[in-house]
Structures are given as structure tokens and as C-alpha cells.
Amino acid sequence: MTKSTDNKLDAVVLAARRARELRDQGYREQALKLFPHVCGNCGREFDRKILHELTVHHRDHNHDYNPPDGSNWELLCVYCYDNEHQRYALAEQGAGIIGENQHKTGLNHPFEALKGLLGEKKT
């Protein structure tokens, strides 16, 4: 190899190392190092082969708040992540309510008046 080829190769390797360091500083890579590779909602486990299907969810929905201890993150599979964001969007539109425990209340309550219709049970 010539000196110019060696220099180009060194530059490519250096650029790749820098890019990896930047990625490792990203919140997804930090979360993958902090937490087990399991969906925080459905419990599905992820190995290297399908790790790309595991994503970081910001619990407070603020993507700019990324504490290094991971307290605003949870790992969710892409399906649970989509479900969480759809639920949150509906709640923002006033179609549902998100409680403190972050579980959706149903949009439809078909048996809400049933207790009143049945009246008090007499013993």
C-alpha cells in the first residue's frame, strides 16, 4: 500500500470510531447499556438479531430530557411504543384520560348505567 492509501484508510477508521463514540453517547445506546433487553410493557425479550425492534420511550414524552441515569426512559418494543404514543395522542385530543398510573381509561363505557338500572340488591 502507498502512503496516501494508508492515510485514507486511517482517516476512514478514525471517522468510524468517532461516529461510534457519538452513537454510544446517544440516549438509545445508553438505555441499551443500562436496561435489560426486554420490552417494559409486554415483557418480550430481544437478542442481537432483533434488537432493532426495541426502542426507547421517554416516559414524560419529552425527547429533550435525557438524564444519564435513564430515569426518563423505558425500553419498549415497536408495537408497544406505537400503542403508547397513539394512546397519548388520543388523551391529548381529549378522547381519553391518562391517570397517574399511565393506564388508559376506555373511551366507551357500555355498562356505566347498569348499576343504577339494577338497583340495590336486597338480601
Keywords:
single chain, 123 residues, 2 strands, elongated
Looking at the chains present, what oligomeric state does this protein adopt? Answer: single chain
Number of strands: 2
Structural class, by secondary structure, is: mainly alpha
Strand order of the largest sheet: 1-2
Profile the largest sheet.
2 strands, antiparallel
Overall pLDDT: 80
Cα-based radius of gyration, to the nearest Å: 24 Å
Shape: elongated
Q: Can you give me a brief rundown of this structure?
A:
The protein is mainly alpha-helical. It has helices spanning 3-25, 27-34, 78-92, 114-118; strands spanning 54-58, 73-77. It has a two-stranded antiparallel ribbon with strand order 1-2.
How would you describe the overall organization of this protein?
The longest helix has 23 residues, at 3-25. It is built from 4 helices and 2 strands. It is elongated and about 95 Å long. It has 123 residues and is mostly helical. A two-stranded antiparallel ribbon has the order 1-2. Residues 100-106 have low confidence and may be disordered. Helices cover 41% and strands 8% of the residues.
